[in-house]
């Protein structure tokens, strides 16, 4: 593991938060890193839980793409349809979301029922 890589957040904490938020009646989505290339700072399996108000816990990129993932997750919650997101330097959103360091990341966002 390179010194640039941020260790994954404790997935159990994120999954516990997901359960707690659902039990409280909040609509939530779960984002999961499914694939990375290059200098992506979070490994596959990292999670981010998001509620319909945009609150979130966890991390899928150490801050590079969380804002874009949260925005997409709100749409996923509203539509009930999962989405596969990809960010990277070859993507037109790379500079906007901060992956100018050379990595690429694929994140699956799904509603939690």
UniProtKB/TrEMBL annotation:
Q: Which domain of life is it from?
A: Bacteria
The protein here is known as Xanthine and CO dehydrogenase maturation factor, XdhC/CoxF family
Task: Please give the InterPro entries that the UniProt record associates with this protein.
Answer: MoCofactor_Util/Proc (IPR052698), XdhC_CoxI (IPR003777)
Q: What organism is listed for this UniProt entry?
A: Roseibium alexandrii (strain DSM 17067 / NCIMB 14079 / DFL-11) (Labrenzia alexandrii)
Note one Pfam family from the annotation. Answer: XdhC_CoxI
Give all residue intervals belonging to the XdhC- CoxI domain: 21-88
